[in-house]
Amino acid sequence: MSARRLLAPLLMLFALAGAAPALAQDKVVYHIDNAAEQGTKALRNIRNHLDVAPKTEIHVVTHAEGVDLLMEGARDKKNNIDYGPLISDLKGRGVHFEVCEITMKRRNLSKDQFVMEAEFTPSGVVRITELQARDHYAYIKP
Fold first, then answer.
1. Predicted local distance difference test score (pLDDT) of residue 19
2. pTM, two decimal places
3. Which of 16, 28, 90, 108 sits a CA distance of 20 to 30 A from 115?
4. How much is the pLDDT for 57?
């Protein structure tokens, strides 16, 4: 067999290996546990993130006071920003917004108190762990 015939498959293998990172989609989990401190900054960071890397798969996991971000009528009182339209826009761009059901139970909250874009997870902390450890998501806490 000629050297050229042996070299061609190796070159193809190297080319594919080099292209693999470019084909990979980034995956990120944003952790929100205090809407008053993190809400506006988190939503702005996510919007900017998608503006630069629109194919990024993003999950926003909320628990404790972070679930307030996803409640109907939630707003940043300091900056007078209504979160609803921002969340709706990001959901339209593929962002998943998740609410911890343990927090809901502890605070006597019901699913109908949250924006329609909200998804629910049994435990926010467990969900973050799954996304990081099992699914290899990068972790961001704004």
1. 46
2. 0.82
3. 28
4. 97
Q: What pLDDT does 77 receive? A: 86
Indicate the helix (H) or strand (E) that contains 65: strand 57-65
Virtual torsion, Cα 68, 80, 139, 64, nearest 10 deg? -20
CATH of 25-140, one of 3.40.50.300, 3.40.50.970, 3.40.1260.10, 3.30.1330.10: 3.40.1260.10
Buried b (16+ CB within 10 A) or exposed e, 25-52: eeebbbbbbebeebbbebbeebeebbee
The C-alpha R_g of the chain, in whole angstroms, comes to 20
**Rounded CA separation 82/14 (Å):** 50
d(CA 19, CA 80): 45
Question: Low-confidence residues of the chain, pLDDT below 50?
Answer: 10-11, 19-23
Per-residue model confidence (pLDDT) at position 89: 97
CA distance 69 to 50: 19
Cα distance between residue 21 and residue 132, in whole Å: 19
